[in-house]
Amino acid sequence: MEREVVEDRVDKRMNPSAGRSNWVSWLIPIFVLANIAVFVVEMYVNNCPKRIRNRATSFGADDDKCVARFLGRFSFQPLTENPLFGPSSSALDNMGALNWAKVVHQNQSWRLISCIWLHAGLIHLLVNMMCLVVIGIRLEQQFGFVRIGVIYLLSGVGGSILSSLFIQNRISVGASGALFGLLGAMLSELISNWSIYSNKVAALVTLIVIVVINLALGILPHVNNFAHIGGFLTGFLLGFILLPRPQLGWIGRHNLPVHTRPRSKYKASQYVLGLLSLILVISGFTVGLVMVFRGENLYERCHWCRYANCVPTSKWKCDE
Questions:
Q1: Quick one: CA dihedral 127, 128, 133, 134, positive or negative?
Q2: Residue 196's Cα: distance from chain center in Å?
Q3: Residue 51: closest CA among 82, 85, 91
Q4: What is the pLDDT of residues 192-223, one digit of tens each?
Q5: Which of 155, 163, 228, 277 is catalytic?
Q6: CA dihedral in degrees (227, 232, 234, 239; nearest 10)?
Q7: Closest CA to 201 of 211, 216, 191
Q8: Tens digits of residue pLDDT in 277-286
Q9: What is the pLDDT of residue 252?
Q10: What does the alpha-carbon distance between residue 283 and residue 257 come to, in Å, rounded to a whole number?
């Protein structure tokens, strides 16, 4: 009977549907609001009407017109230039988009972080923020704002580092790397805490299918799949470090007889996976950053890697 009571308490602590969450999510909503605020600033800085006027003055008549012109300087660039309803690429570059040349040759390493707060358009922003709300709030409720915030930010940087090693001829923006980091952390959390879950196989298969589908969509043109892959791998490793759950015996240790030796907080496998992941994260970031600032282009060492980012077909071509 006592064991059943302990397990019921554990289930309520570890399963949001079984009881009230221990944490109130506030960091993820702040991240969402911050991304929206940055997008508003993007559109203000872009000032489409002024750009169109300057273009017409410099190059003659220009038939392209801003979209949603009633918004004034917040109107969107012509759809022929940006089909996602957003600013121009030059405005994004000025705001801090990931630009390999400026990171390496102009010492603007801050772009590795700033780019994850920028979005190419309203559609891009809405899709990413909906995913962030669905995934991030649940994780923050379970594990708290510190661990989820660290995973989100470091995964975004991990995606930026891998992007800089492969994509060096165009700018890149978006929170996709950070979002994939949360997906990766969900997968490693499930593996690390395998024994406490019911329907674990179904949960694992579902999560893997979601990840595979999203990575498959990344091979379409104009999508930075290296940010997805880098963010996912970073989050996957960080999940083993930051998201292990204590064993049942450790949580219920206060109910044990006085002379009974309680279990260790975590299983041996959790300690091993956490240590290996910590080593891989530190070495990966160190090696990756050194290669980025040395101007390495991994396409020269891995010619087939370009197919991880875009697969050409009869319907579209990929940027070289």
A1: positive
A2: 27
A3: 91
A4: 988 888 788 888 898 899 888 888 877 776 68
A5: 228
A6: 160
A7: 191
A8: 999 999 999 9
A9: 53
A10: 44
Distance CA 140, CA 148 (A): 6
Q: In the annotation, is 259 catalytic?
A: no
Q: How far apart are CA 122 and CA 71, in angstroms?
A: 14
- pLDDT tens figures, 54-98: 887 776 656 678 999 999 999 999 998 898 999 999 999 999 999
Structure token digits, residue 268: 């041996």
176 is catalytic: yes
Residues 239/190, Cβ–Cβ less than 8 Å: no
pTM: predicted TM-score of the whole model, two decimal places: 0.87
**Exposure string over 122-131, b if 16+ CB within 10 A, otherwise e:** bebbebbbeb
176, 188, 192, 277: which is the annotated catalytic residue? 176
